[in-house]
Amino acid sequence: MQANVSVRKPVRFVLLAAVLAGILFLVASHGNVADAKPSAVVYNGHCYRYVASVGTWAAANAAAPTLPSPDSLCAGMTGYLAVINSAAENTFVFGLATGDRWLGGSDAAAEGTWRWVTISGQPIFCIAAGVGNCPAQPGYYTNWAVGDPNNQTGAEHYLEMYGSNGTWNDATGVWTVAGYVVEYDPAAAAPTPVPAKPSEVPEADTLLLLGGGMSGLGVWLRWQWSKRGQRTKSN
Ligand SMILES: [Ca+2]
Ligand SMILES: [Ca+2]
Fold first, then answer.
1. Which of 152, 143, 156, 160 shows the shortest CA–CA distance to 61?
2. Residues 59-77: what's their mean pLDDT?
3. Residue 125 has what pLDDT?
4. Nearest to 183 by CA among 107, 72, 70, 94
5. Beta strands 46-55 and 177-184: pairing type?
6. 56 alpha carbon to ligand 1 midpoint, in Å?
7. What is the pLDDT of residue 188?
């Protein structure tokens, strides 16, 4: 009977130590879990920045690559006037702000042939078949306002999104709107070293807490063992 008690006690101490270490790790890593939550400027793995700045499409197009990403997910990447590929992305970009804003589309090079001119390859997303009729090319998306694109006065070649409802308009090169949307695409950016996920690399404070907790447990365990030793001697 006495032998069983002496085996059980150390086992209990080890179990207790493991549970306490687990609790300490969860408490310390809680901050990382919060950091990993997607922010309002990230959608589908891309980052977006709405810039409130009244100006022309050309001014917005020139400024976009000079602005840093609003989220660390796209840190160090070069942005471009946003390219919209789906209704869901349109809804997200619409939700960023309330003002009319420039997007990365233009038909300045060839009237009626609308391209996403701010990205590599400048893909054609629609070809106009008349006023207010520019059907999306296969695999692309459009959200023109009723009656647009209309190339009014023969001079509307730049894509804006209306802040009122998220539909699109073709506007002139001298037209100014409330702002523009910059997009950052990790897949399109130059290769950069991939940082380890937060969960793979414990932060310094996590290690400190774990170390502190374990050494405290060590002291307590030694104290328990010395008490046992004293009891055994007095017996
Ligand atoms: Ca046009
Ligand atoms: Ca128009």
1. 160
2. 95
3. 98
4. 70
5. antiparallel
6. 15
7. 82
Fold of domain 42-184: Mannose-Binding Protein A; Chain A (3.10.100)
**Which has more confidence, 229 or 30?**
229
Looking at all shown ligands, the one closest to residue 152's CA atom is 2
Residue 30 has pLDDT above 70, yes or no: no
Cα–Cα distance for residue pair 181/120, rounded to 1 Å = 18
Indicate the angle between helix axes 2-35 and 204-234, nearest 10 degrees.
170
Neighbours of ion ligand 1 (CB under 5 A): 107, 151, 156-157
Dist. CA 209–CA 50, nearest whole Å: 40
Q: How far is CA 169 from CA 143, 151, 180, in A?
A: 9, 9, 14
CA–CA gap between residue 225 and residue 234 (Å, rounded): 14
CA of 109 to the centre of ligand 1 (A): 9
**pLDDT tens for each residue of 172-228:** 999 999 999 999 999 985 544 445 555 444 444 444 444 545 555 555 556 666 666
Q: How far is the CA of 26 from the centre of ligand 2 (A)?
A: 56
The ligand whose atoms approach the alpha carbon of 147 most closely is 2
Give the bridge partners for 102, in sequence order: 160, 180
CA 86–ligand 1 middle distance (angstroms): 22
CA angle 108, 112, 114 (to 5 degrees): 65
Nearest ligand by distance to the CA of 150 = 2
CB-based burial label for 8 (10 Å; 0-12, 13-18, 19+): exposed
For residue 235, pLDDT beyond 90: no
**Per-residue DSSP letter, 75:** T
